[in-house]
Amino acid sequence: MKQSSPEAVSSSSSAPALSDHSQPSALSSSSSSSSSDKASSISTAAAAEDLAVGSRDGGGGAHECVTVERLGEFSAVCKWTVHNFPRIKARALWSKYFEVGGYDCRLLVYPKGDSQALPGYISIYLQIMDPRGTSSSKWDCFASYRLAIVNVADDSKTIHRDSWHRFSSKKKSHGWCDFTPSSTVFDSKSGFLFNSDTVLITADILILNESVNFTRDNNEVQSSSASSTISSSVVASPVSDALSGKFTWKVRNFSLFKEMIKTQKIMSPVFPAGECNLRISVYQSSVNGAEYLSMCLESKDTDKTVILSDRSCWCLFRMSVLNQKPGSNHMHRDSYGRFAADNKSGDNTSLGWNDYMKMSDFFGPETGFLVDDTAVFSTSFHVIKEFSNFSKSGGLIGGRSGSGSGSGSGSGARKLDGHMGKFTWKIENFTRLKDLLKKRKITGLCIKSRRFQIGNRDCRLIVYPRGQSQPPCHLSVFLEVTDSRNTSNDWSCFVSHRLSVVNQKMEEKSVTKESQNRYSKAAKDWGWREFVTLTSLFDQDSGFLVQDTVVFSAEVLILKEMSIMQDISDQETESNNAGSHIDTVWKRSSFTWKVENFLSFKEIMETRKIFSKFFQAGGCELRIGVYESFETICIYLESDQSVGSDLDKNFWVRYRMAVVNQKNPAKTVWKESSICTKTWNNSVLQFMKVSDMLEVDAGFLVRDTVVFVCEILDCCPWFEFSDLEVFASDDDQDALTTDPDELVDSEDSEGISGDEEDIFRNLLSRAGFHLTYGDNPSQPQVTLQEKLLMDAGAIAGFLTGLRVYLDDPAKVKRLLLPTKLSGSNDGKKATKSDESSPSLMNLLMGVKVLQQAIIDLLLDIMVECCQPSDGSSIGGSTDANSKPSPDENGAATPLESDRENGASESVPFPVYERLDSGVDEGGSASAVQSSDMNLLGRPEKALPGQPICPPETSAGASEHVPIHSKTKWPEQSEELLGLIVNSLRALDGAVPQGCLEPRRRPQSAQKIALVLDKAPKHLQADLVALVPKLVEQSEHPLAACVLLEQLQKPDAEPALRIPVFGALSQLECGSEVWERVLFQSFDLLTCSNDEPLVTAIDFIFKAASQCQHLPEA
Q1: What's the gap between Cα 677 and its chain centre?
Q2: How confident is the model at residue 303 (pLDDT cuts 50, 70, 90)?
Q3: What are the DSSP calls for 730-798, one per residue?
Q4: pTM for this structure?
Q5: Which CATH fold topology does 392-558 show?
Q6: Check: CATH 2.60.210.10 for 220-383?
Q7: How far is CA 270 from the centre of its chain?
């Protein structure tokens, strides 16, 4: 049906449960229902009002008869018989008046529909008048009614509609313009016409017997309850006065409406509260299977003659059901919120509780809430006295808005006005509000300002007068931004906001905090929980509270942006042979981010950053960030590190980034890099000088718009070391032996089953590593996908992950344990348990590009095994965050930042400074979400919108992550040393040339000296033989000295001389070093016999030839 009534809207069949924190009620101001559905439309025809002053008798040219069946003083059924109904010429008919509850009632019918009806519909209305005459303007009454056109042939086909309404001198008629199609009624076969042309129209009417009382806080009684029941008192007063008061509503015939409130609701007269008119509504709801009395406070303005639809007020209120039994307790519930005259602004028109109290408690004969069929409802309220001002401004942009465009600066400024503005909000009687909250023990209460609109977004300030912590210490202030258009759930906007508590004595002493955040449906409010201390706020001399008034302000700048994600379907990367285990072919995708008011944010980017919304690529959420450093534009890609994201998933992402040249696409600047979403999260690409980018003719800035593009070239799940634990059973831990020779032939460690091998193969392949068998099926090898071989960042991330994983001796053993890999070309199991059985560590070392880094790692573990029991680490591992190491394309990874104060450790490298969150000038922490109370006390969790700065892990420095002993390395150190020696013995010494080689770590000679000094005697010969492999070339002279010192020890075994001379002859040293070695070797001849003597002589001649001292030899 067409809904043409301005004040009558469809009701909800059920209302959502409301908690004590005020949530909007689902029920609207007026309601209707048919017998089974209470969502029918109701209409009041304007034409009906024209007839209000017509004849008090029935009329319109039809013969009619009215009978009234009274069911009590306030209830009646009217039966109106209309003859000659199909042939009536008159536009309208009205019945004779009949009295119900002291009011005059009559029915109006338009056989061919009124001016608002759809063609072919009958209109029917109920009209109620005050019998004292139309001159009395101060009356109203609440009625619940049902109108029906009776089917005399079959009563089940009777057409009826139910509604309720508060009638008054301004709103005397209520009903439906499109009650039913006239063709149905006029059809002689349908059963509605009897005696060939007569229709029976009925009305069941219930009138509420009520009285009200309204008192302001100054105890001045506005209106008292009338002694008679003819008229309930109507509250009327200047709205600006009623900031706090109490309204009481007494209903004397509640049980008459007991059935009605199951589908509809009863409503009190209105009373003034601030700018709004409020009223109490009562209805019944089913909550979790139990029946409850529901009670709400409503503000929807039904008086459509009032033009001020933006009226609103923030109200703290208590709703009560009074107990009429002496000495019994009343029922109270408190809530608060902003009411509005209509819901266009997004504010509430109804606040309350669906589960206010159980119906059994309300109706209980002994409870005292319903006595003599009388119930008393009341509400006391406090409305804040507030003033607000909003001005849109383009002034901050200056004359640059026309830069790069043909339009003048004037049109540019107008265009930008909509994305920038300042809102000021003044709250009076602030101390009284604080005292009221304290008295009522209300915690966590927030006041929300009126909304103001910037860039098509609704914004408002949220203030917590007593903060969000217990005990109250700080005032909390937030900015809320929502999507006024409600277009989609995934809306997002980037906002720079500066919030202030204004110092009214000295404005320069105002407390101001600034932040940049991305707002969305999930993160719609950002600000500070500890904005200003309550002590300083309420200090009379501080200047924040003047004449009991506090002033807040918000300067808001919204990024005008567009973004689009698209697949580059014609540029699929081919899967090579190594990638044959990956089922799906990766499709390249492209994310374009267009910033249309770039210059407005230029100053912000000098100290902070802007970032796009997240986009999805290959299972991970990514976003672009942009900032300026040393007058250079810097761009980075980072993954979502917020609390809600899946931090367990780790992806390697290779991408290329561009600043698009909009005039000449061929001049677009591209740079390539990669990230690992969990291990190393962002790398910064340095592009051009900002001044070059802003040149009018350069083509990068056109009409204040800059376009950034990120192409995702490749993305795959990243290797997780914890997954390796499936390859070692718990039994293996007890089966270890310290003898390397025994280890090789050990039968105690079970071979990896076919299933486990497949898991391992799959795990490695997802990370770009592939287990292959080459020519010999019993000799597995690990190879790297080509794409990773050239990615220093990927290799660095892998090695960092390996170091972090190996923080526990048990894990080290698992990787060093010889495995019996099954698998052959025919798929049958083939096990082998001789020296060729590799450990997982050996498989990884088979990747030449990882070999040196893993050797360094194993050397560190040996040092750890040889450390005293305090477990401290020696030098060489302490410079973990020394400095970033940019790779060839300018990418570097930011340092770990101190997000508490926004300071960065990388003072000499400002290009990495701002990958922490934006902070204000006062050095406060970043803005957080007001609703995120569960994050308090958990600073390690990321708050939405904050980029996470991982530890520095670029290619040049990733290996500097120390192995810190969380627990003491156990007595099994000897076993570990044996395993490591056995693993290193299998290595060939040559490192291939030409592949990307991570930088060797320094101080390897110092570490090998410590290991040789502390290692068990039976391992020393093997360790000495490994020295040329373990020490990098620049430290060979140091290594030579270390080896000779081993032989000069008083307890040195003569047998050690053979491996020492063998190792020395493999080192590369200068002639000075060889000379020193030669003369020290002469001392060893005197105490050498047999084979060591032969070896010593042989070595002396080699050393002499290296330093031209053959005659001495």
Answers
A1: 18
A2: low
A3: HHHHHT--S-HHHHHT--SSPPBPHHHHHHHHHHHHHTTEEEE-TT-TTS-EEEE-HHHHT-HHHHHHH
A4: 0.64
A5: 2.60.210
A6: yes
A7: 40
